[in-house]
Design goal:
single chain; mainly alpha; 8 helices; 0% strand; globular
C-alpha cells in the first residue's frame, strides 16, 4: 500500500469512520458542556487538537523509549500519560488566560478538565496500543508518524463534530421547539441523529 494513502486512511478512519464522539462515545462531557456556544467550541477544539497531538506524540516517545525498555509499561503508562496530559493542559490554560481572558472565562471548568478528558487519554493510549479502546484484533504498533497522524485525526474529528454541533445548537435556540424539548433534551436528540449519520461510514476501510 502506498505510504501516503496509508496515512490518509489512518487519518480519515480516526476522524470520520471511528469518530471518537459519535461512534465510540468517548469525551462526551465537553461535547455537551461547551457546545452551546460556537466561539467557545472553537477555542476548546483548538486546545484539544494541540493537547491531543502533543500528548500522543510525547506518550509514544515515553512508551517506546522509557516505559517498555524498562519493562514497566503495563504498570505505569496510566500515571505517565496523565502526567504528560496534565502538563500540556496547564501550558494551554496559561496561554489562553494570558492571550484571551474572555475565552478563558467562557470555557470555565471544561478547560482544566481536558486533563481528565477520556478522549485525550484514549488517543494517547491508542497511539501505542492500536485498538485498545475499540477491542480490535490488531497485532502491530504504530510508528511515530502513524501515531501522530492517528492522534491528529482523532483531534480533528472531535473538533469538527464539536463545532458543527455548536453551530446547530445556536440555531436551535431560535427554532420553534416545544418548551419541554429545549436545552439538553434537543441536544441529545441532535447528537443521536449526528451519530446515526456517521454510522454510515462504518466498515468503509479495513486497515
Amino acid at each position: 500500500m502506498n505510504e501516503a494513502w496509508r496515512f490518509f486512511l489512518i487519518f480519515f478512519g480516526a476522524a470520520i469512520v471511528s469518530n471518537i464522539l459519535l461512534i465510540r462515545f468517548i469525551g462526551l462531557c465537553p461535547f455537551f458542556g461547551v457546545s452551546s456556544s460556537l466561539e467557545t467550541s472553537i477555542g476548546m477544539s483548538l486546545s484539544v487538537i494541540f493537547v491531543m497531538t502533543m500528548a500522543s506524540s510525547v506518550s509514544w516517545i515515553a512508551w517506546n523509549l522509557v516505559l517498555e525498555p524498562l519493562g514497566v509499561g503495563e504498570f505505569l503508562y496510566i500515571p505517565a500519560f496523565i502526567l504528560i496530559i496534565a502538563s500540556l493542559v496547564q501550558f494551554v490554560e496559561m496561554v489562553i488566560k494570558k492571550t484571551s481572558p474572555p475565552l478563558y472565562r467562557a470555557m470555565g471548568i471544561y478547560l482544566p478538565l481536558i486533563t481528565t478528558n477520556c478522549a485525550v487519554f484514549a488517543a494517547a493510549t491508542e497511539s501505542v496500543k492500536p485498538g485498545f479502546f475499540t477491542k480490535l484484533n490488531i497485532a502491530y504498533q504504530y510508528g511515530f508518524l502513524e501515531a501522530v497522524v492517528y492522534s491528529v485525526g482523532i483531534a480533528v474529528g472531535f473538533s469538527l463534530v464539536l463545532i458543527f454541533f455548536a453551530a446547530i445548537r445556536e440555531r436551535l435556540e431560535d427554532a420553534p421547539i416545544p418548551r419541554f424539548f429545549r436545552g439538553v433534551p434537543i441536544a441529545f436528540i441532535t447528537a443521536a441523529l449526528f451519530s446515526l449519520a456517521f454510522m454510515g461510514f462504518a466498515g468503509m476501510f479495513n486497515l
